[in-house]
UniProtKB/TrEMBL annotation:
<dbReference type="InterPro" id="IPR029044">
    <property type="entry name" value="Nucleotide-diphossugar_trans"/>
</dbReference>
<dbReference type="Pfam" id="PF00535">
    <property type="entry name" value="Glycos_transf_2"/>
</dbReference>
<comment type="similarity">
    <text>Belongs to the glycosyltransferase 2 family. WaaE/KdtX subfamily.</text>
</comment>
<dbReference type="GO" id="GO:0016757">
    <property type="term" value="F:glycosyltransferase activity"/>
</dbReference>
<dbReference type="InterPro" id="IPR001173">
    <property type="entry name" value="Glyco_trans_2-like"/>
</dbReference>
<feature type="domain" description="Glycosyltransferase 2-like">
    <location>
        <begin position="7"/>
        <end position="95"/>
    </location>
</feature>
<keyword id="KW-0328">Glycosyltransferase</keyword>
<protein>
    <submittedName>
        <fullName>Glycosyltransferase family 2 protein</fullName>
        <ecNumber>2.4.-.-</ecNumber>
    </submittedName>
</protein>
<keyword id="KW-0808">Transferase</keyword>
Length: 253
């Protein structure tokens, strides 16, 4: 029988944490929560639901999750963000896996990204494959401060789903876009990645055309156009901020 450790990192996630943990308990034997000093009821709710909660000031997404992996008891870890939850098909697929004899070290799921409580089935938002179930004895998260992922060469994708309550509204999306683009620039400046003055425009235009035309945003009405546009803005800002660091040794958040 599969033994799985659930892992969630949190900061003021009282709105989401209950549904997230309740879905994890459908397939996990323990749940580890790494909390970044929340000021709401996140810790109380997680403790009530039987999770083992550890407090750790935020280290960045990759390092924070790897810190959590070190506290997991079992070889296989199922990591969800607090605003995610397993859908019924994912629960069934996980229960059916023979993880002891698996030829893979990582499994990805299709993520349903919701916006205004509506599943966005176009742009890069679907199918949005995310690696969530992995063998911690073989793989770890990347050390990226943002947009971390499980680094694996022996992975496969399941057809089942994780539900993701990604953004509350456009204001929330813009706020996170600004935050993530800054962190991308800082990560890549550390890696000494060089960009040209054309990089922001070319990447931004490419992201819009990909999302709106190739990924079907054109068929999703106002949300499809706006999400494509904001994805393009996010891509533009990542490279503009990296260029800013290279030219002026600084970036504004």
């Amino acid at each position: 029988m599969n033994k799985i450790s659930g892992l969630v990192i949190t900061y003021n996630e009282a709105k989401h944490i209950r549904a997230c943990l309740e879905s994890l308990w459908q397939v996990c034997d323990e749940i580890i929560v790494i909390d970044s000093l929340s000021s709401d009821d996140t810790v109380a709710i997680a403790t009530e639901l039987g999770a083992k909660v550890y407090s750790q000031a935020f280290l960045g997404y990759g390092p924070q999750k790897n810190y959590g992996v070190d506290h997991c008891q079992h070889a296989w870890v199922l990591s969800l963000d607090a605003d995610e939850r397993l859908e019924a098909d994912a629960i069934s697929d996980i229960k059916a896996l023979d993880l002891t004899n698996s030829p893979y070290d990582t499994y990805a799921f299709r993520r349903k990204n919701l916006f205004h409580d509506k599943w966005i089935r176009c742009t890069s938002w679907y199918p949005d494959h995310v690696r969530r179930l992995f063998n911690r004895e073989k793989v770890r998260f990347s050390h990226a401060q943002c947009h971390e992922k499980v680094e694996s060469t022996a992975h496969t994708a399941l057809k089942s789903h994780i539900r993701h309550y990604s953004y509350t509204n456009y204001h929330d999306m813009l706020h996170k876009l600004n935050k993530y683009s800054t962190q991308y620039a800082l990560d890549n400046a550390t890696n000494q990645r060089r960009v040209s003055v054309w990089s922001p425009s070319l990447h931004g235009l490419g992201a819009f055309l990909k999302n709106y035309l190739l990924k079907g945003g054109i068929g999703c009405g106002f949300d499809g156009f706006t999400i494509s546009l904001l994805n393009a803005l996010g891509s533009y800002l990542k490279y503009a901020k990296l260029l800013e660091i290279q030219r002026y040794k600084g970036v504004q958040s």
